[in-house]
Amino acid sequence: MNRHTRLALAVGLSVPVLLAPPLYAATSPDPATRTAAYIQLRRDVLINADLWTEQPEILAANFGFEGIIGVPGLLSADDLSLAVAAGAGVNLDWAALEPTPPLRNLTSAASPLGAAVAGFGATPQLADAMPIEVSWPLLPSSVSPENIAITLNTGDVVTPVAAALNPNYDHNERHVIVVFGEFGNRLPPGSEGAVYPQTVTFVAGSSPLMAVGPDGPVSIVGLSAPSSNPYVAGPALIGALLSRFSPAGDFPPPALMGAFPNDAYSLYGEAAQYRLRLFTSGGFSPDGVSGFLPTDFETFFRLHGHDSDGQPVILDKQGHVYDLGVGQVTIVGLAEAGAPTTGTPDRAYYVEDHDNYFDIVLEGDEAAVRLLQAVEIPTAAVAGYSDIYNPGGPGRTPAASTSYTRPALPQHFPITHRLAPHSPHTVSYAAQTLASYDLDDDLPVVFRLRAEGRADVLTSSSIVANALVTHQGYTLAQVPYANEMARPGVSDVRRYVSDSGDHFYTLDAAEQARLEADPHWRSEGRAFGAFARDWPGLAPVYRFHDPRTQRHLFTTDPGEGTRLGADYEGVAWYAAPFIAPSSAPVAGRSGSGGSIGCLSLLGLGVLFWRRCP
């Protein structure tokens, strides 16, 4: 009896029903494409995302794990027997704790509903998973299963049933497409009946898959990479970038805020000076189920460098000050795991984002930081260290008869230095038309709207922007920069309107207090989020006052104010500026925006929806 049959009997389904692919009539859109996460993940917004290489390439496309995505009936800790039957790792000992830990900490298996709510646009059943890592961030709306061809060892070429940027959903990430489908089995290569992917290729679909570089979106159709087998060797490092830390864009869409905020500044404040960002070929887990803690550096990693005399140095202690002769460096901890906690985090309850990125956070002198050369994964073969698994690993209570993905091999990966303060090798991009956005009151972009004889309006609300264009004669001038979600380090830019019709925006608390007390100004609350200080990947937004019209102007182009003859009043705030769109063809968008009704899944209380005006 195979795993499909066992699980079918466990949940009371007939085998034909259980194995039927999740196909939907072309005239009836899949409700999974109406979830908040699906819609928000497809917004064409990237903020301070790394460019790992000079040209786009697939860094890895490895078979992830088999048969554990879309386990019918898996809704709570009471259903873990279904995860075991599907071959997923489980932590049954934690399931007995009071209160019960989150289901994601008890098993790496997911229900069909869970895949839909996570934004995959489908409800797969007993599907395999594969993350595909690209060196440039993807244009979100262009991500589609039809653009991915997976060639198996049998010669068959298969297309995934689902593809999404989840769980790499922060706006400064988005280099990974996770796909679900039928890609193989757990038999080792070379054995009779073994099925596994050999090659992954980006192919032409109804519109091209796009990545975003310094000049905007470019087609990456034709890129290809081999696929390794996780039941032979576990996840690996595929990148290690050392740069000055910036919090810009380090936040998710609102529908995916479970582990937010987890950026280095939110965890460590001013100690977050440098970021060694690790890019992995699969999620990293201490057991194949649970997540990493911010305190886990000493358990899984160590750094290699040399001192000013050229002598090798190993940095393996979190919080220890290392003197390298030209300055000091300290490993502060890990970031990009979960949100700050009080006291020592408990792994059974700690909520991690389970994506492909980890930050080793450093503070110290730049001269010393420049002497770091490599990051090592020692594995459990070295005393004091533990193995790393991907999400197909065994968990704390594995089943003796089940094959799980293997732990990572020992690794020694070179560090790429990008410490120049004004050359962060990142990109920020946003679609420049209102029609490109769903209707929402708080998008991750700022719209700048203009009307003859009136003050400009800055807003993060596409609802407000569309109303101004439709009913009040405004036009969209540009989508100039990002709106940062509220978190440590981000300031609220508040909007005020004068009796004469001037619009004034400020994050300065003293100015806000003065305007609140002035009867000639009316507060309209928070307009968007920005930074009061400069960080890599940001640009100043300048404030001008035009004495002829008595109106204020806010612009990233200082020449704009000069050409108007306006008086310069300084830097108003800092924000991630979006590059101007290139002439390259941009993939078409489907199902993004418009007004349709909202519905719920009865009995489960989970909302499927599109934004309604």
TrEMBL record:
The keyword Signal applies. Keywords: Signal. It comes from the Bacteria. The lineage of its organism: Bacteria, Pseudomonadati, Pseudomonadota, Gammaproteobacteria, Oceanospirillales. Residues 454-575 form the DUF5648 domain. The keyword Signal applies. This is GlyGly-CTERM sorting domain-containing protein. Transmembrane segments: none annotated. Residues 1-25 form the signal peptide. InterPro entries: DUF5648, GlyGly_CTERM.
